[in-house]
Write a structure and sequence with these properties.
alpha+beta; three-stranded antiparallel beta sheet; globular
């Protein structure tokens, strides 16, 4: 069974967040999943939020434009991603309390998606532009 990361030198993979796309190809939702879905090493939200700040896909393959877009999404929606990760941890703790001793929470197939937030790319860009105008 997977255990939460207890600190130390651990360079195993961690799933950050998932991006759901609409029929028109635009991002519509961000979500997180339970550990069993991705087979990841589990890190607390505060540790994963620190990873968000360093996330960049700087590779030409498999697709340079897609890799740049993905990196930009992590910058554009960083605040929502951080909130989502904290909501993920709260959902895990709530599930653990409600199902005490029945099954390890990170392996419980009844808990797949742990947190969700709808996003609007155009609205996010408008909000950032407005904030930049106010700051100037």
């Amino acid at each position: 069974m997977a255990q939460p990361n207890q600190g130390g030198n651990n360079d195993k993979l961690s799933h950050l967040v998932a991006i759901a796309m609409g029929r028109n190809g635009a991002p519509v939702r961000l979500f997180t999943t339970n550990r069993w879905v991705t087979g990841e090493t589990w890190y607390a939200a505060s540790d994963v939020c620190a990873m968000l700040d360093r996330f960049v896909v700087d590779l030409a393959r498999p697709s340079w434009p897609l890799n740049r877009w993905l990196s930009a999404m992590f910058r554009l929606f960083a605040p929502q991603m951080a909130e989502l990760l904290h909501a993920r941890d709260a959902a895990i703790m709530n599930w653990r309390r409600r199902h005490r001793g029945k099954i390890h929470v990170f392996e419980d197939r009844r808990l797949e998606v742990t947190s969700v937030v709808d996003i609007d790319l155009d609205e996010q860009i408008r909000e950032i532009a407005l904030a930049l105008r106010r700051a100037a």
